Structures are given as C-alpha cells and as structure tokens.
Amino acid sequence: MTFKRILEPGRNCWRLEAAERVAFLIDGQDYFSALNSGLRQARETVFLLSWDIYSSLCLVPAESEDGVESCPPLRDLLNGLAVRQPNLRVFMLNWDYSLLLGRGRERLIRYKLDWSTHERVRFRLDGFCPLGAAHHEKVVVIDDGLAFVGGIDPARGRWDTSAHRVDDPRRCAADGLGGRPHHDVQMMVSGPVAGALGELARERWQRATGEDIEVDEPPVGRPADFPWLEGITPELTDVQVAISRTRPQYETQAEVREIERLYLDSIAAAQQSIYIENQYLTVDAIAAVLAERLQAQDGPQVVIVLPRNTDGWLSQQSLDQMRIRILQNIRQADVHDRLGVYYADIPGLGLDQSIRLHSKLMIIDDRFVHIGSSNLNNRSMGLDTECDLAIEMTPEEAATQPGIRALRNRLLAEHLDTTPDLVDAAIRHHGGLRHGIEALRGEGRSLRPLEPELPPYEEGWLTRQEICDPERPIEPEALVQELFPAAAEPQSSSAVTPRRLAVGAALVALVALGLAWRFTALGEWLEPERMRAAVESVARLPLAPLWLVLIFVVASLLMVPVTALIVATVLVFGSLTGFVYALTGTLLSAGMGYALGVWLGGRGRWPIAHDRIEAIAQRITRNGVMAVATVRIVPVAPFAVINLVAGSVRIRWRDYLLGTVIGMGPGIAALAFFTDRLRASLRNPDGATLLTLAASALVLLGVGWGLNHWVKRVRGTRDLTDR
Q1: CA 549 to chain centroid
Q2: Which residues form the PLD phosphodiesterase domain (predicted)?
C-alpha cells in the first residue's frame, strides 16, 4: 500500500505548524470545561472568534449530583480575569449577523460584552464580509500558546454531555435555554500552531477594526510559557498540524479555498475508510469524489453521520432537500456496497428533540483527522470565513500514536452506546468500518440508517444552490434573476436614451444615499434619540398618523433604514399603536416603491442588468408569496431596492403585499415588543415588566408557529415534523 502525503501548504492549507500536544474534546461539557480552565490561566491575550456568542453562558454549570460549583457567566468570568491579571487583554470578534439568523441571538450584545465590561475586555461585531456571507470560525487562542478550533461557539444550545439526555437540567443551567441534545467536537492544541492561530486572529481583528494588535517576539508565541491543562491527557504529541481556511473575495481580501481542496484531496487519497460527521451535505464536488472512491474496486468503506433533520423550516426545505439529492447520487455510485449513512438516535427523543449533530469532522484511514468550523455545504467552501485544523500521520506514526483511531472509536462508542474497545474489535473482526457498525447497531441508543427516514426529493427554487447555499459572494442581479426567472429571452437593445440616463442617475443616487446613511455624517440622524425627537415633533401635529405614514414613504424612497423608523415610532407611540403605524407605513412605502418599479420596468427604461431585467417574468409561479417573504428576510438588498425590483418584474400585487406582510410583519412585531419592553424595564425594572416581557415572548412563539404552519400549507411540502 503506497503512502502519499495529503497536506501541502499553499494548496490545501495555509500553514503547517508544530503542536506539542493535541487533545480531542467531544461535546460541549468537555470543551467548555477545558475552555474555562484555559481562560483562568491566561496572562496576556485571549482571542475569541465566533459565529454566535452568549454573554451569560455558564461554561461549567452546577452538577447537583456531585455538588460541583458552577463558574460565573462568561461576561463576569472575563471581567474578573481582567481585574486579577493586570496585563491581560481580551479580544472578542463575533459575526455581525443578518436578520435571517437573528432569532435566538442575544440582544444588546455589544453593550453586554463591550460597553459594560472592563476596559481591557473588548468586543466587536465583524461585518467585513460580502453580501450574504458570514464569519463562521470558532477559534479561541490563549497567550499564543494554547488554542481551540472546531464547531462549538460559546453560545446557547451548545452545552451538553455525551449522554445527550433529553431532560438534562444542566443544559438549561448552562444557558437558560436547554434545547435539544447537541453533539460536537473541538480540537485543543499547544505549541507554535497556537501562535499561528493567534496571527490569524490578529489579522481578523485588524480587518474588522483597523487596529493592529502587537505580538511579542517571536511572532509564533511562547509555547513553553503556557502549561498544558491539568486533567486532560493529550492524545497526540509532537505532531504537525495544518491550518486551512476559507476566505471569500472581498475588497482587498483575496479568495482562499484551502478547506475545499483539503476535503477533495483527502477523500481522493483514502484507501481503507472514510468516517464523516457533519451538519450538512450539499457540495456536488465532494459528492463526486466520494462517488468515485465508492466506484473504485479497491476503494474505502464510507460512513457518513448526519443529523436526522436540521433546525428551522427554511433549512429543512432547502439544505435538507439538497442533501437528499446528494445522497441519491452517492448511493447510486455504491456498486460495491461500502456506504453507510446514519443518524444518531436515542429512543424517546422524537423528531423535534433528536440529537442535533453539529460536528464538522472527517477521519481517513485512522491516520488523518480534519476538525474545524466548515460544514459540508457550499457556503463553507467559498462564501463564509472558516478555520479548520488537520493532522496527518504516516502508517508507522499512526501505529505508535493511535490517537486518531482512538478518536473514531470514542465517537462511534458514544453513538452506538458501547465501549471504544468493542468498537475497535468489531471493525477489525467484521472486515471494516461499515461492517463493524452494522454488527454493533442495536434497538436502543444507536446509529440508524438515515435514507429510509427521508421524504422524496422535491426540486424547487429553495433547493437552488445559488439562492440558499451559494459558494461565492452573491451578486444581487444574479439573485434577482434566480428568484424571478425570465419569461422571455433577453432583449438585445442597449441604446442609451435620455430616459435611461435619467433613470440610471436616479438609481445611482439611491445607492449613494444608502451608503451615505451608513458611512457618512448622515448616519448621525439615525441615532435613537434624534429619531425619537423627530417622531415626537410629528406626534404633536394635527393628523399625526397621516404625517407619520407620509414620512415613512418619503424616508424609504430616500433609503433611510426602515428599522430605525420602526424603533422611533414605537418609542413615541408605544408597542400597539407604534406597531400599527409602523406596519402601515412600511406597507404603504412598499406599495409606492412597487408602483415606481412598475413605471421603471417598461421596455427600455430599466438601465441595469445589461437589459436582462426587461425579460424577467411578469409574474412568478406558485412560490411568489414565499419568494417575496424570503427576500424580505434574507439581507439581499435594501428595503427600497427590493420594492423597485419587485414592481419592475410585475410580481402579482397580491403575492407582493402578502409576502411583504409575512416577511416583515413578525419582525416589526418583535421589534415593537422588544423596544417597548426594553423602555419599560429601563424606566421601571421590576417583576411586572419582566413578566410582561415573558408574556410577549410567548405570543411571538405562537405567531412563529402559526407562520411556519402556514408556510408548509402554502408550499404543499411534506414537512418532516408532520411525520
């Protein structure tokens, strides 16, 4: 059996650095406990890169059965460390998330983790990424000598034990949420590789804030100065660790697709076994190389563990459907019966409480391991920022340090409710990875075949990669054309007319206004106090509601962010009246923008898209309502631009209006409730205001459930939860 190196700096990894020690931390309990210990040993710097974060997260919740004392919430922990360590500086960088993924995230997060914390505890929201992209890395670096990389954010819904008990009270004690059982993996490394990850974190901070953070010499850190954590046995020592990245092309940042290349190269090199755990599976290129290895006469056995279903109707109707197609293609290639696709199951959990498998891990031939933040979806290959670690060993090295094989055995022992030794013995005795798993599967907690649980594949616009799982930055023109397909061939006319020049100038002015509100002194007028004062002056006028609605219409045409108008309206008029005025103003603004778009949309009048916008359909198909609702939620373009485009392509008025209500109504209601209750709690922070806040949350949950039910009925889609 020939051996060929997989890892190659400049091709499938950024750096290949030495690690003195490596440990694999399975599930949130082990990771957060190690993170708590590591933070308490920090002396100089802590870098934390995250997709989501929760300031009140308890890394070590109280365990009533043995009386272990819990640690303070994350914010208090970091504040206390900064007070006790005079040289310690903490830098937290969290993605400046989109409205689509705002549900469940902590409000006022910058106030809680930056404005109200110690001066050396700093927090920023990072929006340095293209339209539709996200910062998805989960990296912690302590004193440039210890680092954690994997799939676990310091956020709600991540803490869990490997038992994954449905009724474990510690999950709720950790974050106040509880949620369904959660499985994930993190890698802990010490040595020069941690210093290199510190460089990566400093680069992210500089791009996001423009600030340079000095680093002591040598730049790779001082690994000998940071002790390995007590109680954690390293599974590998003195190995080379690769750092692989995904970076989208954005401004001066060049595109980097090292992670995609690493997946393709490592799968192609597999000879005996491929073990994958991942949240998604939607990448055609990875499916193709898996199919190629399955078709090979001497190819590996392939085991893929995925969640039974993902969270949320949008993900279930898009990414879950896309993986059905991918699995069908891979299954057709399995001519030698070497493929197993499973989900982790514990009897009694039910579909809604099934284990949320969130890990991003791949093990090849017991000598190669890949752990990080990247999902096996297209956006992790080229759109979002990602950071993964990989370790490769020769067959001889793997024989003397069997830590990678031991990790695979531990993971399978957890899923199959057995021991790592029995897993290892079954794989050896039954002739390979998949056959060993089949021999160990039982009726209780176990791995179960996923494909029989899946509904038939249904193709629709939500399953189009360009819309819900893009691999490169989204061009608004292309997305509009995907959402509203052309009903006729593009026109060839490109004559420049005075009409076109005038309309083009107007559109350029709109774009300039939108940028001005965000990046110039005009943005000062959007400060809450100024907006509130302006609305209060309107409230004193005769016929104040009519004036307010008129202001909504004019302001939206001038590209004023509609969210700022909504907040100011609720602050002045209260939650119910403010909601009614804000929704009315928003709908009338949408109608005026639609009418203007209809006027612009005639042949020869729309000077964008290289004349292709003229051929966009006069109406959309049965997904019209859902298309409008989605673009109201997804951060595709400003509110006013969406209005103009919708009118220009002649979306049915009923679909447009109903889609706008569905897409924006719940958000306006949520913002109105939140703003009103926040104002009340600041004025009178007593139990009554907290109770009304909780009651409003219950109402919003009911609205959300009803909206989800309506969506499923309109789409006529067979939803997994109904099964």
Answers
A1: 36
A2: 131-158, 353-380
Residue with tokens 């309502």: 625
Neighbouring residues of 45: CB distance < 8 A, sequence distance ≥ 6: 88, 89, 90, 91, 141, 142, 143, 144, 198, 213
Task: Return the exposure string of 660-691: e unless at least 16 CB atoms fall within 10 Å of the residue's CB, then b.
Answer: bbbbbbbbbbbbbbbbbbbebeeeeeeeebee
Residue 15 pairs with which residues in a beta bridge?
Answer: 243
Please check whether residue 384 is in contact with residue 372, taking contact to mean a CB–CB distance below 8 angstroms.
Answer: no
What does pTM read for this prediction? Answer: 0.70
Which of helix, strand or coil describes residue 385? Answer: strand
Which is more confident, 128 or 22? Answer: 22
What CATH number does the domain located at 256-453 have? 3.30.870.10
Cβ atoms of 461 and 467 within 8 Å: the answer is yes
Question: Do residues 363 and 410 make contact, with C-beta atoms less than 8 angstroms apart?
Answer: no
Contact in structure between 535 and 568 (CB atoms under 8 Å):
yes
CA 456 to the chain's CA centroid: 26
Task: Go through the chain and tell me how many residues it has.
Answer: 723
Lowest-pLDDT range of 229-233, 351-355, 515-519, 572-576: 515-519
Instruction: Report which of 717, 689, 700, 667 is spatially closest to residue 566, judged by C-alpha positions.
Output: 667
> b/e for 639-655, b at 16 or more Cβ within 10 A?
bbbbbbbbbbbbbeeeb
Q: Which residues pair with 341 in a beta bridge?
A: 304
The domains of the chain are located at 18-239, 256-453, 492-722
- Alpha carbon distance 254, 243 (integer Å): 17
Say which residues have a Cβ less than 8 Å from residue 429's Cβ, sequence separation at least 6: 436, 439
Say how far apart CA 10 and CA 249 lie, in whole Å: 17
Whether 256-453 and 18-239 are alike in CATH topology: the answer is: yes
- pLDDT tens track for 77-90: 999 999 999 999 99
437/435 Cα distance (integer angstroms): 5
- The class level of CATH for 18-239 reads alpha beta
Phi and psi dihedrals of 467, rounded to 5? -95, -55
d(CA 388, CA 368): 13
Phi, psi of 536, rounded to the nearest 5 degrees: -60, -40
Distance, in Å, from the CA atom of 48 to the CA atom of 121, rounded to the nearest integer, reads 11
Closest CA to 358 of 378, 346, 375, 340: 375
Residue 719 has a pLDDT of 35
- The per-residue pLDDT for range 342-390, each reduced to its tens digit, is 999 998 877 667 899 999 999 999 999 999 999 999 999 999 999 999 9
Query: Strands (DSSP E) along 96-222, which ranges?
Result: 121-126, 139-142, 146-150, 182-183, 185-190
pLDDT (mean) for 614-625 = 41
pLDDT tens string 127-173:
898 878 899 999 999 999 999 999 999 999 999 999 998 888 888 88
Give me the helices (H) in 318-440, please: 319-333, 378-382, 395-400, 403-416, 420-429, 433-440
